């Protein structure tokens, strides 16, 4: 899954895109598999988001889930 696809799933604004890109870079460097978490969110019907507000909520959810 490429970055543009991920940004589209979250309905990212430019600011949201920068936040998510920074997180994704950190997770990759830390060896964390954020792709698996995004896949699980899609399977649960949490993605794709319907609007930017929901997208920001899902980004925050993803950030919390990555550190559980």
Quick description:
By secondary structure, this protein is mainly alpha-helical. It has helices spanning about 5-10, 15-30, 35-45, 50-65.
For the secondary structure, the number of strands is 0
Overall body shape: globular
Query: Tally the helices: what do you get?
Result: 4
Average pLDDT, all residues: 96
Tell me the Rg in angstroms: 11 Å
Tell me about the biggest sheet? Answer: none
The secondary-structure class comes to mainly alpha
Based on the structure, what is the oligomeric state of the protein chains?
single chain
Low-confidence stretches: none
Helix and strand sequence: HHHH
Strand content: under 5%
State the helical fraction.
over 70%
How far the N terminus sits from the C terminus, by CA atoms, comes to 23 Å
Describe it.
With 68 residues, the protein is mostly helical. Helix content is 71%, strand content 0%. The termini are far apart. The mean pLDDT is 96.
List keywords for this structure.
single chain, 68 residues, mainly alpha, globular
Write the layout of secondary structure elements.
Blueprint: H1 3-9, H2 14-29, H3 34-43, H4 52-66
């Amino acid at each position: 899954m490429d970055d543009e696809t991920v940004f589209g799933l979250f309905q990212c604004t430019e600011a949201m895109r920068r936040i998510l890109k920074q997180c994704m870079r950190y997770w990759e460097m830390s060896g964390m598999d954020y792709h698996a978490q995004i896949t699980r969110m899609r399977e649960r019907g949490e993605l794709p988001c319907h609007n930017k507000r929901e997208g920001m909520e899902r980004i925050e959810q993803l950030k919390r889930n990555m550190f559980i």
